[in-house]
Design a protein that fits this description.
Helix content: over 70%
Number of strands: 0
CATH class: Mainly Alpha
Number of domains: 1
Number of helices: 18
CATH architecture: Up-down Bundle
Radius of gyration: 22 Å
Oligomer: single chain
CATH topology: Na+/H+ antiporter like fold
């Protein structure tokens, strides 16, 4: 087994390159091959089961960059406008898989604490996996993608609240507490409210309101910072903003990737204009650098490392086939139906958009592994069989996302082709 972290990184990059070439040849998203390569390498004994600290934090930086890049592409107004169409997707798309996983686990293992942790593991959507898959299909700016992203962010907030409340109960450390619920809600409001204030008062070209009374900061807007040295440092400036907001999100109990997405979301193209007339702009150059780092050489490390979590122990694997098959089939059906129906009837999305959203909400990653770590490593709540069942279930649900999205894309495109056609005699 290779221990030197730079050699591990070289192997991972070889896999990323091979996966990208395979993805282009097979017309499937590269995420499937990233996950498969990570699993293959760890089970072949080439990469270690316990991720090296350097690789772990490199992968952490990758998911932050991915989420920032995706937010950077999104239109802020579209995101805010999408919230009123996405609340139902977030609510029903979280409650339904929680209950499904809870009752499947209760049926197989008969332990309510195991069932609670299984439910929590399957609650939050891994939006990064879905958004990267949508990007590879050219759908990252579609209305369905915005709905998935908004729902997943709201989903993250609700899932974190559920973790704060239910984990202490499952570990026997606490009972249901209104104070815990209130504190989690307060942190969520404080974080997202703070980001909104920064967007409204600090980032505009000319600071306004009470910000103007602050020395130095009150005199300059974000355009002044991005225009320094003719925009030579604009990439560094926006990545620093992503990291700072990500760290702030972490302090509030969220994954740093959520903060990075919000940082990208509040940046606008007009902030990059280097003069009043807007004759020159560093936006395209900055976006090119960010996208290259996020989707070509840093971001993919996150998915390869995620694949290394799938370690095959054949005796356990064989024994949990019924549990895994049941959990995968039930959760795929319940998650797709709950999110899709909510998108259709509470969000007003079309049928084809609703199916796309249902498929897009299937992924599980960051929060799922946090919950599993708490329940299996820190506290002996999950049995070995339950742990491996969840691990394989997450793997197959993650694999299903790019496969199902790619399968549905022709139907999605066909609907939008006919919708966008002008009526005969009444051209647009």
């Amino acid at each position: 087994m290779i221990q030197y972290p730079l050699v591990q990184l070289a192997i991972i990059w070889i896999g990323v390159l091979c996966a990208s070439l395979l993805a282009s040849r097979t017309k499937l998203t590269s995420v499937v091959f990233f996950l498969g390569f990570g699993s293959l390498m760890v089970n072949a004994g080439i990469l270690p089961i316990e991720t090296n600290e350097f690789i772990h934090y490199f992968a952490e930086l990758g998911i932050i960059l991915i989420m920032f890049a995706l937010g950077f592409e999104e239109n802020t107004r579209n995101f805010i406008r999408s919230i009123k169409h996405s609340w139902g997707i977030a609510l029903f798309g979280a409650i339904a898989p929680f209950l499904a996983a809870y009752f499947v686990a209760l049926y197989f293992w008969g332990d309510s604490n195991i069932a609670i942790m299984c439910g929590l593991t399957m609650t939050a959507t891994a939006v990064s996996l879905t958004m990267v898959s949508l990007k590879s299909l050219g759908l990252q700016t579609s209305r369905a993608a915005t709905g998935i992203m908004t729902s997943a962010v709201l989903d993250d907030v609700g899932s974190l609240a559920a973790v704060a409340i239910l984990v202490p109960i499952a570990t026997g450390q606490a009972t249901i507490s209104l104070a815990a619920v209130g504190w989690t809600a307060f942190k969520a409001v404080a974080f997202f409210g703070g980001v909104a204030l920064v967007s409204a008062y600090l980032l505009p070209n000319a600071p306004s309101g009470w910000i103007t009374k602050i020395p130095l900061i009150g005199r300059y807007g974000v355009r002044d910072l991005l225009a320094t040295d003719d925009g030579e440092h604009s990439t560094l400036a926006v990545l620093l903003l992503a990291l700072i907001v990500g760290l702030l999100a972490y302090q509030f109990g969220f994954h740093p990737a959520v903060g990075a997405y919000m940082a990208g979301l509040i940046l606008r193209e007009e902030y990059f204009l280097l003069d009043i007339k807007g004759a020159r702009s560093s936006f395209s150059r900055t976006k090119t650098v960010v996208d290259n780092a996020a989707f070509s050489w840093i971001g993919p490390v996150f998915f390869v490392e995620l694949g290394t979590k799938i370690v095959f122990e054949w005796d356990i694997f064989v024994s949990i086939i019924p549990q895994t098959v049941t959990m995968v089939l039930v959760l795929i059906a319940v998650q797709t139906l709950s999110a899709g129906l909510a998108a259709r009837y509470t969000g007003g999305y079309s049928f084809h958009e609703s199916v796309m959203i249902g498929f897009g909400m299937l992924g599980r990653a960051e929060l799922a592994f946090v919950v599993m770590g708490i329940a299996y490593v820190q506290h002996p709540i999950l049995s070995t069989e339950a742990f491996y069942t969840l691990m394989f279930t997450i793997f197959w649900m993650n694999v299903s996302v790019p496969v199902l999205l790619a399968w549905w894309k022709p139907y999605f495109d066909r609907e939008h082709f006919f919708v966008d056609l002008p009526e005969i005699g009444n051209p647009k």
